[in-house]
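Technical annex B. To support the medicinal chemistry partners, we prepared a structural model of the target in complex with magnesium ion, based solely on the information shown next.
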Amino acid sequence: MSRADGLVVQKYGGTSISNPDKVIAVAERVKRRLATVKRLVVVVSAMGDSTDELVALAQKVSRQPRGREMDLLLASGEQVAVSTLSLALQDRGVDAISLTAAQCGIRTDGVFNLARIRSIDTRRIVGELDAGRVVIITGFQGITESDEITTLGRGGSDVTGAAVAAALGASVCEICTDVAGVLSADPRLVVGARKWSEISYEEAIELASSGAKVLHPRAAEICMSYEIPIHVRSSFTDESGTWIRSGGSIMEQAEVVGVTSDKEIAKITLLNVADRPGTAAQLFEELAEKQIGIRLIIQSASSESRARITFIVDEQFVDGAVEVVEKWKTSQLASDVLVERDVAKISIIGSRLASTPGLAARMFKVLAREGINIDCISSSEMKVACVIASRHLERAVKTVHNEFFHTQAQPVAG
Ligand code: ADP
Ligand code: ASP
Ligand code: MG
């Protein structure tokens, strides 16, 4: 795919357009950006908390809102946002057009609530750009081959931004948000977290998939495959944020690039399963059939022929996972199952973790000093993750961040 020089994709998150004044501020920013780029595509999330409000509305009328109807409902938030921004741009003399995912050919698979983009037919977008317009596209949604509306999972507008940037061969995908860039910790938890000027795609993927909400991990994966640079930056200022691209220099310097946390998880344990070939395969096949993603797996032998399998799932998958493991209990494949929802995960991320001895030990030591017990540990080349009781999470993040970044971490008001 040839890189379209001067074609920029900007994505604005919900907090950046949470009220009419902010929509106007974004419209003015988009107008200013047009002075420096030839072709501009803007992907927008729903305004403020409107997706949460739509979820709450659905929960008031249905015990388990999901599937097709839920996606049709959730997708409406982005439609409000694009048309509003487009009106504000037109009012300021900018020739803008808003398009839904259906109107601009963003095709997904048929997995409602968690769809994946399969292709983008860029003809309509390119036609509008050729006509000199700014194209404003709904994030977070797509359309199946049979014309059903789907959504891409929470935070999915980043994925739309990345996929549109990849399909158009943009020179950059700008993720415009309410923070200055990718920081060494969530600034809502840690005051004085460090802003990186550049990190690698791999570091961004690890940070995002272990809880740094600033970017969706799939957005970083898509941009990595198509070699589209990402620039995570503030929606409110013109200052440079964090560049994510190949060959970044920070990779060679920082041992730890971030301390991340994830509260929305649960831990599930099956006791006394058969310790023989095929047990784990059967369990995780059954979970996969229900589209349940697994975060972490630990198997340990409890006696000669019996084993214990523990795994961590995102909160959204807990009910589905419980259905599977309860069947294992009733059919006596496991003597018991334990479901713990009051757990959380804290991770340190860095591309030099594996090659720098002692980093994991430092993390464990400061947690111990705080009297925080570690329930499970997992590690990979770029990550050490600990599962702890969720009530200790904020303290754990502050203390671990302080160990690696020497900040006096304090809570942010509000
Ligand atoms: P948007 O509405 O723009 O998509 P999100 O709320 O999804 O914004 O993501 C931005 C938020 O991500 C920030 O307000 C911040 O609290 C949070 N965040 C978590 N971890 C990090 C991190 N390491 N760096 C920057 N922001 C982070
Ligand atoms: N509006 C959607 C959400 O709240 C998508 C997004 O914000 O990226 O999850
Ligand atoms: Mg987001």
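Notes passed to the chemistry partners:
The first strand starts at residue 7 and ends at 12.
The mean pLDDT is 93.
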